[in-house]
């Protein structure tokens, strides 16, 4: 058979489209002794999952080798049979990864495709692999193994994005910029402070993934179809071979649980939301009206009609793709909510949404890191309008608090001074004469001008986690240490 080109996904093996040869004899199924072998061709296509679950091939082989090793330990198969099984499985996996393995949808899924190939290759020993095991606990294990690998791979990508943000924060960190609430100018902060806000979001994403990983790293292998097995299976031993520290305690729950997949897709959804918020912010910042940042040409597109356009399409797609991840989460939850115990074929569909959510989130994180690494802040543009909007009003109110004025009184007083500036067509509180300020409060002294103005205000912040220069240096040092490895 001619080799196909491999199309390797981020987590998994190459994707191939299984074919149904029109004149091939029907292949045997594990259950055909009970149900007739003849089945409508459309039905074969309707029930198959090989078109997407072949990504589990490596995990399926790993689980099968661990299971077979356990069977040999328990004297349920011989050592020679174990070696035959291991050799056959490794050969099959090599063929799959080399895109020379022939997938046939009449085998329905990756599990039966591999088992059928194994039996064809090594004969009777291959028929013993499924001893004490069902596809129900087999697929539950495979998906858990895939999720564990996906979490580890995604954490690396998230850390890369965090490093890109921290590097940009080092580059522009101490420059002041406006922070916004309600999309209105609020208070001055450093550019680095805003960039580190996204680093914090991403760290929570990593923390959630770590929690998800802990609950995912539980082996259902040995749960069987629904009630376990009468055979003396050493489930803990098989789990240890897969570097899984725990095993499930209830066979019903073991084969029907997909909480871990839902939790992972939720984590991916929140990552998508965080990236969408970042993308929205930078879409605004890159507009002519803001002009705070310039995204590199490599990450923008033009217009088919308007020659001057420079569109932040990759940011817009990052925002748009987050919707797909959220849709995958809703689909997965909806699929699970109506199922009685234990396994139902509905669960076959979980992998479509799980894989799609991961692929989208992983691609978005990777692209975000590249965009961040090639973006410049227009500090001159930002500084030209920095004192518009009375960003230092809160700093002045707290200046009055330090002079003994109750905060509510100080708040009212500064609000009055802002209104006075607007009446006099002044752009900043610092443009008010000192004697005019003192008419409203005698505690105001010449030292008020040491805190007025956004560029000065960012040196006044003292509280932990604040948006000023001193706290930025502390936070940058923390992230440098944390992301070093």
Helix and strand topology:
Blueprint lengths: L40 H7 L2 H4 L3 H17 L5 H19 L12 H13 L1 H4 L7 H38 L3 E6 L2 E7 H26 L1 E2 L15 H7 L4 E2 L3 H6 L2 H27 L7 E3 L17 H25 L12 H24 L1 E3 L1 H6 L8 H10 L4 H17 L10 H7 L13 H4 L11 H14 L3
Parallel strand pairs: 3-4
Antiparallel strand pairs: 1-2, 5-6
Helix pairs in contact: 3-4, 3-7, 3-9, 4-5, 7-8, 7-13, 8-11, 11-12, 11-13, 12-13, 15-16
Q: Could you name the key traits of this structure?
A:
single chain; 485 residues; mainly alpha; Fumarase C, Chain B, domain 1; Fumarase C, Chain A, domain 2; Ribonucleotide Reductase Protein R1, domain 1; 3 domains; two-stranded antiparallel sheet; two-stranded parallel ribbon; 6 strands; 5% strand
Polypeptide structure, described:
The chain has 485 residues and is mainly α. It folds into three domains: 41-127, Fumarase C, Chain B, domain 1; 135-384, Fumarase/aspartase (Central domain) (Fumarase C, Chain A, domain 2, Up-down Bundle); 393-452, Fumarase/aspartase (C-terminal domain) (Ribonucleotide Reductase Protein R1, domain 1, Orthogonal Bundle). 57% of the residues lie in helices and 5% in strands. It has 19 helices and six strands. It has helices at 41-47, 50-53, 57-73, 79-97, 110-122, 124-127, 135-172, 191-216, 235-241, 251-256, 259-285, 313-337, 350-373, 379-384, 393-402, 407-423, 434-440, 454-457, 469-482, and strands at 176-181, 184-190, 218-219, 246-247, 293-295, 375-377. The strands form three sheets. It has a two-stranded antiparallel sheet. Helix 3 (57-73) crosses helix 7, helix 8 (191-216) packs antiparallel against helix 11 and helix 12 (313-337) packs antiparallel against helix 13 (350-373). The longest helix is centred in the first third of the chain and has 38 residues, at 135-172. The relative contact order is 0.10. Mean pLDDT is 93; it is low at 1-10 and 13-27.
């Amino acid at each position: 058979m001619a080799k196909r080109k491999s199309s390797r996904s981020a987590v998994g093996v190459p994707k191939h489209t299984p074919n149904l040869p029109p004149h091939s004899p029907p292949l045997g199924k594990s259950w055909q002794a009970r149900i007739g072998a003849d089945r409508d061709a459309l039905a074969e296509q309707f029930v198959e999952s090989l078109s997407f679950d072949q990504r589990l091939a490596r995990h399926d082989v790993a689980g099968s080798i661990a299971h077979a090793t356990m069977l040999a330990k328990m004297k349920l198969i011989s050592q020679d049979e174990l070696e035959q099984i291991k050799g056959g499985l490794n050969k099959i996996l090599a063929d799959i990864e080399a895109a020379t393995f022939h997938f046939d949808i009449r085998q329905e899924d990756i599990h039966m495709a591999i088992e059928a190939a194994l039996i064809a290759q090594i004969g009777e020993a291959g028929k013993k692999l499924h001893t004490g095991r069902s596809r129900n606990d087999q697929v539950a294990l495979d998906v858990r193994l895939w999720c564990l690998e996906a979490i580890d791979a995604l954490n690396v990508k998230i850390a890369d994005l965090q490093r890109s943000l921290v590097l940009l924060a080092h580059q522009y960190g101490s420059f002041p910029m406006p922070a916004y609430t309600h999309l209105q100018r609020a208070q001055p902060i450093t550019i680095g402070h805003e960039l580190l806000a996204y680093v914090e979001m991403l760290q929570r994403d990593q923390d959630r993934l770590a929690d998800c990983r802990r609950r995912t790293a539980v082996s259902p292998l040995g749960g069987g179809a629904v009630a376990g097995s009468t055979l003396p299976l050493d489930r803990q031993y098989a789990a240890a071979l897969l570097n899984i520290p725990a095993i499930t305690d209830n066979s019903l729950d073991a084969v029907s649980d997909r909480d871990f997949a839902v939790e992972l897709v939720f984590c991916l959804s929140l990552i998508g939301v965080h990236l969408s918020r970042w993308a929205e912010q930078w879409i605004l910042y890159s507009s002519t009206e803001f002009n705070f940042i310039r995204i590199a040409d490599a990450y923008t597109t033009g217009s088919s009609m308007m020659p001057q356009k420079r569109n932040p399409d990759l940011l817009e797609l990052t925002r748009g793709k987050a919707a797909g991840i959220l849709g995958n989460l809703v689909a997965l939850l909806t699929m699970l909510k109506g199922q009685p115990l234990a396994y139902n074929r509905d669960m076959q569909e979980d992998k479509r949404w799980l894989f799609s959510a991961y692929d989208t989130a992983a691609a978005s994180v990777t692209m975000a890191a590249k965009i961040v690494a090639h973006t410049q802040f227009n500090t001159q543009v930002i500084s030209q309008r920095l004192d518009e909007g009375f960003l230092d009003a809160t700093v002045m109110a707290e200046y009055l608090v330090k002079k003994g004025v109750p905060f509510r009184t100080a708040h009212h007083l500064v609000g009055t001074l802002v209104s006075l500036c607007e009446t006099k067509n002044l752009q900043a509180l610092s443009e008010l004469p000192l004697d005019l300020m003192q008419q409203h409060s005698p505690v105001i002294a010449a030292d008020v001008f040491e805190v007025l103005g956004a560029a000065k205000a960012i040196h006044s912040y003292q509280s932990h986690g604040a948006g000023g220069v001193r706290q930025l240096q502390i936070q940058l040092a923390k992230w440098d240490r944390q992301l070093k490895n």
